[in-house]
Prior knowledge:
Strand content: 5-15%
Strand order of the largest sheet: 1-2
Amino acid sequence: MWISLEYQLDYIYFLAGSAYFLLGALCLYMQDASRYRLNWRFFGVFAFIFGTLKWQHLFRMHFAAGQAASAFSIFLWAAAFIALLEFGRDNFSRAQKARVRFLPLLYPFILALAVPLFHMRRYNAEAFSQYVFGGLGGAFVFIILLKAALPLARERLPLLFASLCVGLLGILNLTAAPLTLWPAVLTRLNMPLSDLLRTACAMALTTSLYWHYCRVSWNTMNPQERRPFIHYERWLVAAVLVILTGGWAVTNMVAGGREDEERANILLQATIAARSLDIEEYKTLEGGASDTEKPGYQYLREQLKSMEGAAPHIRWLYVMGRSGKEIVFIVDSIPVDSFGHAEPGVLYEQPPAALFEVFSSGKPLTVGPYSDEYGTYVSAFVPVYDPGNGA
C-alpha cells in the first residue's frame, strides 16, 4: 500500500495545494465578522501561503531544487504561522474592542528564526519547521474556532467540524514530522500516509468552512436570492471536479516522460558506484560503531565522496546492510557534522518498503518519490557483489 502512495505523492501535493487555494479564495468572501462570526481575511492569507508550500513540494519532486528551495520552504512555514497569529490577534481585538499591539513585534523574530532552522545539522530543517510552526499553529487556530463555534446555535456544527480538522492537522504535523522528538518518535507515522491524511484534513477543512459560508448566506437571503445561489453551487461543484480530474492528468503528464529518463540515469549512476566500491575494504567492516576507527571505513567514505562529486544529480551515497528485519547504515558520503550523515550501525528508521525487495531479490531498483526521516527523495538501490564469488 505504501509503495502505491509513494508514487502518488505528486497528486497528493496537488490536491493539498488546490484545497488551500480554494480555502483562501473562500475566506476572501468571509471578511464580515458580524455575519460570519470571524474575520477570515488572515486565515485566507495563511491558506494561500500554505497552498504555495504544497505546490512547491510538487515541483521540487520533478525539477532540480537546491538549498534555496529548502530555505524558501522554511520561510513559508514561518510566514504561514505569522498569518495564523494575525488571524487570532485580529479577531481577539474585534471581540474585546481593544488592539493587541505587542504581537506584531514578534513577527520579525519569527521570520529570523528561519535562518538558524535552515542551518540545523541534527534534524531535517524543513521537518523541524513543520513540527514547530505547524504544531503550534494548529493548536492556536483550534482554540480560536472552538471558542467561536460554542456560542452559536444553527451555525455551530460547521465551525466545530472545522476546528476538529485544524486540530487533526496540528496533531499530524507533530506526529508525522520525521524527527526523533516527542510525539513524532512514538508514532513513526509513514510519511506518504501522513501526507495523504493531511491532504484529507485540508479538503475537509475547506468543505466545512464552505458549509459554514452556505449556512450563513442561506439564512440571510430572501427567497428570490436563494434560487441563483443553488445554481451557483452546482457550477462550483462541477468546477471542483474538473480541477481534480484535470490535476490528476497534468501531474501524470509532467511526471511521465521526464521521470522515466531520470530514473534510468539515477539507476545507471548507482550501478557504476556499486561496481566501483573496493570490496576488500568493505569486508573489513562489521556494521557497528567501531568501524569508524578502521582504515577501510575512511577509505570507502573518501571513495563515495569522489563518486558523489562526479554525479551532480546525486545528493547522497550510502552503503546499507540488512540485519534481520531491519536496515542499518554501513558508510556514507556525508560530512560527519552535516544533516543526513549516519554513523555505521545506525538503524534506518523509515526505509521504503521496496528496499527490502532489493535485499531479497538481488535486483537493482529505482524507488520513489518516498519520504523517510531525511526528507522526500527518489533513490536507486543496487546490490553490492563480491566479483570473486558473486555473493
